[in-house]
Amino acid sequence: MKKSFIFIASFLIILISCKETSTNKTERSGEPDVYNVEDDNAKMNQAMVDAKNSIEEFKIALTSKNTSYEFFTIKQKFAANDGAEHIWVRDIQLVDSDFMGIIANEPVYTDKVQLGDTIKINRASISDWMYYDEGKVVGGYTIRAIRDALSPEEQAAFDAENGLIFK
User: Fold this and answer.
1) Which of 8, 59, 61, 93 could form a disulfide with 104 if both were Cys (CB 3.0 to 4.6 A apart)?
2) Residues near 97 by Cβ (< 8 Å), separated by ≥ 6?
């Protein structure tokens, strides 16, 4: 569980204040880094569309009872004063036909939720999903978009810092 929280906390992604061709990282003392991405970033917007369009794949994995699958998370968009904030929700469960989970990141720009809140996922506001399959990330479309925008040196540091292996 600790591994999943640390992992999820590493990927708070906020859609504001950055150039289309770069990723701006805000480092916070004692808190995970925040990656800021402009609303019109085509690659990030496509990543969110791809995640939303493939949510059924996530649901199938979640309900499969496959013991090699773990750390199911969904990222949801929340309104903020100056745009939107996309926050990871952990410990995902399917209740009837609704995804439920716990806010996994300390919000920076929104006051709509707080760390530790249990929420029902708004399917229209899903911006990403992921889980591990034998230690490899499945999904994580927005994480991949951020990583792909980094220089090779930054990618190496990103991978080492987060211990990510993509499927």
Assistant:
1) 8
2) none
Give the span between the Cα atoms of 153 and 155, in whole angstroms. 5
In a domain, 18, yes or no: yes
Residue in 126, 111, 131 with CA at minimum distance from that of residue 69: 131
pTM over 0.85: no
CA distance 39 to 26: 17
Digit-by-digit pLDDT tens for the chain (167 residues) are 444 434 444 443 333 323 233 346 666 566 556 666 766 789 999 999 999 999 999 999 999 999 999 999 999 999 998 888 999 999 999 999 999 999 998 888 899 999 999 999 999 999 999 999 999 999 999 999 988 888 999 888 888 877 778 76
Residue 126 backbone zone (phi > 0: left; psi -120 to 50: alpha; other: beta): beta
Structural domain for 153, as ranges: 2-162
Assess if residue 167 is contained within a domain: no
Q: Quick one: tokens of 15?
A: 């859609």
Provide the domain count of the chain.
1
Contacts of 23 (CB under 8 A, 6+ apart): 35, 36, 37, 146, 149, 150
